[in-house]
Amino acid sequence: MIHIITGSTLGGAEYVGDHLSDLLVEKGLETTIHNQPNLAEIDNQGTWLIVTSTHGAGDYPDNIQPFIQALQATPPKMSEVKYAVIAIGDSSYDTFCAAGKHAYDLLENIGATPICDVFTIDVLAHSVPEDAAEAWFHDHIERL
Ligand SMILES: Cc1cc2nc3c(=O)[nH]c(=O)nc-3n(C[C@H](O)[C@H](O)[C@H](O)COP(=O)(O)O)c2cc1C
Whose alpha carbon is nearest atom 4 of ligand 1? Predict the structure, then answer.
């Protein structure tokens, strides 16, 4: 099972999560999309694919903040979780993709296993973030 966990304010990261889910299902993999992620409802097994934008001054979108706070306050056993993070942001901000980078470090610190480096998508360079995510997907499908 691949848990797709999105952090999004305006819907961009959700679209990327939906698109990745479609690609994974086409490959015969099972996905669950969590657009209002609740740590209590997400198995600490399998693969977590976090897709989050950054808002404010390097902050998480509101919808994913409770999930991140719960992970920090009461981290579950993460030894059976592997993960990847797709971080969406705008490189004109000093805090480019800060939320995704923070999530990547947090998951590693609590014992999950990264399958690759954090993948950043700059919306200034990619007007359709799904296309950049799809290229990433084709390079990493074997590890998911
Ligand atoms: C008010 C505001 C603040 C933002 N702050 C950041 C930021 O600190 N770092 C960054 O990389 N991108 C920042 N962005 C860019 C967003 O991450 C980007 O537009 C993204 O595509 C939004 O995706 P979403 O629709 O999933 O929320 C900001 C955008 C807005 C509108």
Answer: 55
**pLDDT tens by residue, 77-136:** 999 999 999 999 999 999 999 999 999 999 999 999 999 999 999 999 999 999 999 999
CB 121 within 8 A of CB 132: yes
**Ligand 1 binding site (Cβ under 6 Å of any ligand atom):** 8-13, 53-58, 61, 88-90, 93, 95-98, 123
Instruction: Determine the atom of ligand 1 nearest the C-alpha atom of 53.
Output: 17
Is the pTM higher than 0.85? The answer reads: yes
- The pLDDT, as a whole number, for residue 77 is 98
Other Cβ atoms closer than 10 A to 45: 15
Q: Ligand 1 centre and the CA of 54: distance in Å? A: 5
Smallest CA separation from ligand 1 atom 30, residue: 55
Give the whole-angstrom CA distance, residue 60 versus residue 7.
Answer: 7
Q: pLDDT category, 140, cuts 50, 70, 90?
A: very high
Q: How far apart are CA 128 and CA 139, in angstroms?
A: 18
d(CA 84, CA 103): 10
